[in-house]
Write a structure and sequence with these properties.
This protein is an alpha+beta fold. Helix 1 crosses helix 2. The N and C termini lie far apart (about 40 Å). Helices cover about 25% and strands about 40% of the residues.
Length: about 150
């Protein structure tokens, strides 16, 4: 992923309340059920930082997040980088409510280039990963918890 790449944008609409979607993307217990099961902590407050390890084959990725913007039930943004590799990005989740539906718009903006020789850092891999998390995992999680 390079600063010159087109921004990644993934949108999905859910038939549930904005509060339920917000909780799913900001409550660490719920985030572990659809996002990363080993997120150690997460508090939706500007300045909060967390990190956790994800391993793919023989490569380690210590995810480091720092929250940079929070508008409750509307928007949360955080920087996203890795201890083991150069590169930096920001990820923004925005929520839009219309009648009984909520649209989530995820945007990823590369701030500093990531290495081009690592498969997980291609724009195609990143796009596929976000499609999986939002359109499959989060959608499935929210649909299975409609009570």
């Amino acid at each position: 992923m390079k600063t010159t790449d087109k921004h990644i944008v993934v949108e999905e609409t859910f038939t549930t309340s904005i509060e339920k979607v917000w909780k799913a993307i900001t409550n660490v217990i719920e985030m572990r059920l659809w996002f990363f099961d080993n997120i150690e902590s997460f508090i939706p407050e500007v300045g909060f930082e967390t990190q956790f390890l994800v391993q793919v084959e023989d490569r380690k990725y210590t995810h480091r997040w720092k929250i940079i913007e929070v508008v409750p039930n509307k928007k949360i943004s955080y920087t996203w980088n890795y201890e083991e590799y150069p590169g930096d990005a920001s990820v923004t989740f925005e929520l839009f409510e219309k009648r009984d539906q909520v649209t989530l718009k995820l945007s990823l903006n590369v701030i500093e280039d990531f290495p081009s020789d690592i498969p997980e850092f291609t724009i195609e891999s990143c796009q596929a990963g976000w499609n999986y998390f939002i359109k499959e995992r989060l959608k499935g999680y929210l649909e299975s918890n409609l009570s």
